[in-house]
Amino acid sequence: MSRMSQRSLPPPGPSRRGLLRGVAGLGALAALGSTAACGSAASLAGGENRIQFWNLFSGGDGANMRGMLDRFRAEFPGIQVEDTTLAWGDRYYTKLAMAGAGGRAPEVGVLHLGRLAGFAPGRLLDPIDTGLLAEQGVRQEDFNATLWDRATIDGQLYGLPLDIHPSTFYYNRAACEPAGLLDGDGRLVELTGTEAFLDALDAVREVIGQSPLGWNALMPGECWWTFVGLYAQTGGTILSDDGAEITLDDDRAEEVLAFMARLVAEEYAVPGQDLVGYLVNGGGFVLFGNWLVVDFQMAGLDFGARPYPTLFGQPATQAESHILVLPHQEGRGGGANEAAHTLISWLVKNSLSWAEASHVPAYLPVLQDPEYLAMEPQSEYRGAMDIAAFDPPAWFCGTSSRVQADVGVYLSAAAMGSVTPAEGVANIRSALRDLLDTRNPFGEGISS
Amino acid sequence: MTTIAPATPASSATRPAGERAAGDGVRARLGRVFQHGGWFVAPFLVVYALFLIWPLVSGLWYSLNETNLAGINTEFIGLDNYREALGDDQMWDSLGNTLRFTAMITPLIVIVAFGLALLAHNIKHGKWFWRLAFFAPFLLPSAVMAELWRWLYEPDFGLLNNTLNERVPWLLEGDWAMFSMVLATLWWTVGFSFLLYLAALQSIPDHLYEAAALDGAGPFKRMWHITVPMVRNITGLIVVLQILASLQVFDQIFLINEGGPNNETRPVVQYIIQQGFTGYRIGYASAISYIVFVLIVAVTLLRLWMVRNRSEENS
After folding, report:
1. Mapping DSSP to helix (H, G, I), strand (E, B) and coil, where does residue B165 land?
2. How many domains does chain B have?
3. Whether pTM exceeds 0.90
């Protein structure tokens, strides 16, 4: 380009007309943005019979939930449901808490039961009107008593249980059959006590020629689940019922930790394995939450899944639960609130299809439904409902909570053999102490 | 700003000419700024203020309060958060991990990037291929890179252990895990420094080498006395950029191993996130971030000071 042509370019400042056009464009953009924002704000404020539903089902269960909502919409054309799926874990709770704090939350949300105590019921959550539930035919006696009690705080119900999702013990039939561990129905025989359990693992090791158990001692969260389940089998509790005191029995905890460490030390389980990859490629057993059922089914594996075997005295298996909650709204009530109760009642009553995504339905009539009983392997671990061991009732507990990170890491260290079981117990004690000494950031709920 | 000139219309005539010129100068300069690019910079400045300056200030305020995520029960507590953080073993542990990571990766990046750049610069055939191959990993998002390395490090059927035919505890033991993180990060990010070095190598004039060769300098001497000093500035830049990036390391470590085992690779950023978003304690998390912030600013100032010293030396 010559010097001349450069000089003949218009001055670099924008022309008045161009500027106006630009401003108009920006304005239009802003207007678009604000209408979108207003749209959601208006519906958050609760147009009659228009309800927002926030959930965290981003996996296979998400598609399932959307299918259920479509059926709901078809059945209740008068109720408009807008569902939003947010990323699972911390981020979901972050958003729900902030929305509840501002009193502009969605009508309905999902929470993990273990998180309820820390979610300031009465302040970030509104109580559920059991009268409205009863109108929809959903009653307290339709739920497991322990589950219902955990969702009840100071006599008010804050969460309607949709399911429980227990820790399960998966077994690969191809590996267990030659080891003589299957009964006539192709189900795993009862393994009681740690010795019988390890004998069975040894037998399977013989058959498959590799480590017999998929269990990831490297992951703090997974160690926490395993510990909660096995420790509950000893009959002990970790915290007192009001979540204020440590009630951990050191000897029992040490026994459980020693067992977890033995699984790693004697190479029953290799930490860091991808569990699906392991079992699908000829592994023996896997200890993990029930939602891997979907992955194993998709891989076409012939497998079974049952609650944890009883290794330490009394049957127990760790479990979490999805509960449907009413996040705090200023002036909750009216048609939208009734519609919200209609929706949550409908969801639990129709949780048969929810069970397909592997969770155990909390609504007992569904749990006894012949169609559910016919589902394999879902119905095989339905007994988890009666032996579920939930997280201790404290603000720092529940799915992806501080306890999983802070206590879990010490459990993992003990399982990995970095510290002795006795040191591990001392560590988890001090981690629990630190957590108890930290003030609940959300404060107590109004009612508790 | 436009009010400067009209504010003193009556007296302007009696004023010395210089002062009037100054007032006009400001206006003229501002006018020029807005004619030449001021409007173009404005959107950036707005975004900069909104997403950088404002969070910086509000973060400082949070750190002086017992702030939680939901914004309820907030209480002014002065420096208590800082006091707690300075006495918090976990904060020091995680900060130590971050520093360890930084100390390991920075020299490695410099050496490997320089080596790769020399290779790519001097190789005769398929230059474009080597450039692409060394730089390509840098383009991967951290999630993809983490998934890739998680599988490579898989204890039983991972590619590495399978090839070595040995069960190396890549992610299972603290020291190994930190090394594995460094290795994965090196592979992932070395391309950027490699590119900087390559550019620096290409800008070294050939006649220097020719003259040195005439004087009888061998390849090693030429490299040590010409190449290395000529890329010294770039080396300084890479070291500082690398330190600054490594002090903020988080995603790949979190995605591969969640900072495990036994928190031995947990970087301080992960601890901040755990406190702020898992534990809801935004105030405390802000206080820790400010401690890290001070560290990062200190590194930057040190770099500025060194550059100034060197340029004074040269001149």
Report:
1. coil
2. 1
3. no
